[in-house]
Amino acid sequence: QVKNKAPAEVQITAEQLLREAKERELELLPPPPQQKITDVEELNDYKLRKRKTFEDNIRKNRTVISNWIKYAQWEESLKEIQRARSIYERALDVDYRNVTLWLKYAEMEMKNRQVNHARNIWDRAITTLPRVNQFWYKYTYMEEMLGNVAGSRQVFERWMEWQPEEQAWHSYINFELRYKEVDRARTIYERYILFSALQHLPDCRPAFFILFPNWIKYARFEEKHSYFAHARKVYERAVEFFGEEHMDEHLYVAFAKFEENQKEFERVRVIYKYALDRIPKQDAQNLFKNYTIFEKKFGDRRGIEDIIVSKRRFQYEEEVKANPHNYDAWFDYLRLVESDADAETVREVYERAIANVPPIQEKRHWKRYIYLWINYALYEELEAKASSKSSAFFLSFPTDPERTRQVYQACVELLPHKKFTFAKIWLLYAQFEIRQKNLPLARRALGTSIGKCPKNKLFKGYIELELQLREFDRCRKLYEKFLEFAPENCTSWIKFAELETILGDIDRARAIYELAIGQPRLDMPEVLWKSYIDFEIEQEEYEKTRNLYRRLLQRTQHVKVWISFAQFELSAGREESLSRCRQIYEEANKAMRNCEEKEERVMLLESWRSFEEEFGTETTKERIDKLMPEKIKKRRKLQAEDGSDAGWEEYYDYIFPEDTANQPNLKLLAMAKLWKKQQQESEAAEVDPDKDIDESQS
């Protein structure tokens, strides 16, 4: 019994045991003893035993062809050819589809120079199994080795009737070429090309790619034998056969290289350009590479630039194909074609670009798209030629201005004006009509824009147009419509009043200002009031100006209004101007005592002090100095958003002497400053008492 059942430290696997047994050759059997046959009787006995062994093996399993082949080869080694034939025939009765069996049978006949028997076997083999190419190759090779060229050709012809694969046709062609039969080889090429075309259906694009190398090989065969006209004709037939639906770059590259070898450089350039214009860009990389190499070798600067432009066009085509709404890519593409291509090509690209309307009717998605229309219209007006064919988007017109007008009209019809519009396109349309001296159409366009989608920019553009035409009555009507549309727009009120001022109608201008300041809602009221005040000052209506300031101060007590009022009184230029100005400052100071913004009150006092320093007396200067506040530093507690303490912060505050509520605080502050000064003096005396004695003696 095993007491210690723990696993051993060194484990031995079954694989290791087998490997060690193999290394030690423990199962190596000794070789059988050599048998020496001395007479015929022993030989016959040996043959009998050997045949019995083979027959027993065949009887056990008739389907094992290797037993039949070993049996036949053993009989062949004994020069018993008839017996070997019999064994092969018996084996063929068992499995006639076994390729190895036929090959061994025929090789035995050929080895023993039984040519007719070998022909008979090959004929039976290709008749029984015609799709086994090895039989045909062996048969034709045997006939060729025997010098029976006609017999070998006959075998090839029988083979071609079965429509074999490509290599079989090329073997036949190479066979004819070995015997200098060029015409026969050309005929075989023609038959093979026709067979390939019939074999692959046109709707199977991958299968068509198999045919390209055959045409190329045919053309190179003609070129190799110096039949250059035939080679060119083969290439042309190939291009015509495949058409534009099944184009491949390899065919055109081979065609171009052939023409390059013939020094036909213009034909090469035409071939490359034709292919590049029609083959999909992702499938033409090799074609473009070869075209670039060709232009660098034989082209001029213009040709190389054309290649670069073509490459960039390919890139842009890929970008716009991947994302048709990538308007930046369209802009780059259009800029490229405008610099190099003809007018029809540019129009085609423009129409493809503007056909990609943004899918969402939101203005932010249309901002880039609208510039495609603008650029298109400007191109038609400034750069395009008058001769143009009909296009997918627009009809052709006899003149470019007509095409430009059609572009603008199509654009404004496309925009969803109920949701948003672009004033730029309307104004550009109107300016275009002005350049064409067609004023009614320009006014009609702007009037339509204001009626469909009124915008500030449209009104301003229309008014500016009428101002340039000196149509002031139309300007007045437009301003009235504009102010009905946007009464809160202070700039419009100011411009309207300025127009009336320029025209000399002061009462109308003043009435416009009065209407403007009476509006309940304004976007920039301070600008409007300032413009009204400046208007009255220019008219030297000082009383009206003072009334305006008073009315403005009833609405707001802003410090800048007080300062401006005081400066106005100072600039009035009369004797009482200084007293009036000082009075305004005093009123402002009283009005701003309760103002929470102390900085504004400080600003007022500083302006007042500047006035007194320039125009005041010593008394008034001392008075304003007494009114100036004292700047002190304070601390206040901060709180976070959640209400917790966030510490303390320091800030500056102003204490005005006029504020009676702050007088006790001022007194306390003065006493604190005096005490601090006394403390500093006592500390200095303790540090250096001799200095105090010397100072007292001195």
Fold and architecture overview:
The chain is mainly alpha-helical and 698 residues long. The chain has a domain at 630-657. 70% of the residues lie in helices and 3% in strands. The chain contains 36 helices and 2 strands. The protein has helices at residues 14-24, 40-60, 65-77, 81-94, 99-111, 115-128, 133-145, 149-160, 166-178, 182-199, 205-208, 212-224, 228-242, 249-261, 265-278, 285-298, 301-322, 327-340, 343-354, 363-366, 370-382, 400-414, 423-435, 439-452, 456-468, 472-485, 490-502, 506-517, 525-538, 542-555, 559-571, 577-591, 598-615, 618-627, 663-687, 689-697, and strands at residues 630-639, 645-655. It has a two-stranded antiparallel ribbon with strand order 1-2. β1 (630-639) and β2 (645-655) form a beta hairpin. α28 (506-517) packs antiparallel against α29. The longest helix is centred in the C-terminal third of the chain and has 25 residues, at 663-687. The radius of gyration is 54 Å and the shape is elongated. It starts with 13 loop residues before the first helix and ends with a helix. Residues 201-210, 386-399 and 691-698 have low confidence and may be disordered.
Give a concise summary:
The protein has 698 residues and is mainly alpha-helical. Helices cover 70% and strands 3% of the residues.
Biggest sheet architecture: 2 strands, antiparallel
Which residues sit in consecutive blocks of at least 5 with pLDDT less than 50?
201-210, 386-399, 691-698
The count of helical stretches stands at 36
The mean pLDDT is: 78
Instruction: Give the strand order, joined by hyphens, for the main sheet.
Output: 1-2
> Strand portion, in percent?
under 5%
Report helical residue fraction.
over 70%
Number of strands: 2
Compute the CA-based radius of gyration: 54 Å
Q: Which word captures the global form?
A: elongated
Distance between the termini: 126 Å
Instruction: Quickly give the structural class.
Output: mainly alpha
Biased composition (Acidic residues): 683-698
Keywords: Coiled coil, mRNA processing, mRNA splicing, Nucleus, Phosphoprotein, Repeat, Spliceosome
Region (Disordered): 679-698
Family: Belongs to the crooked-neck family.
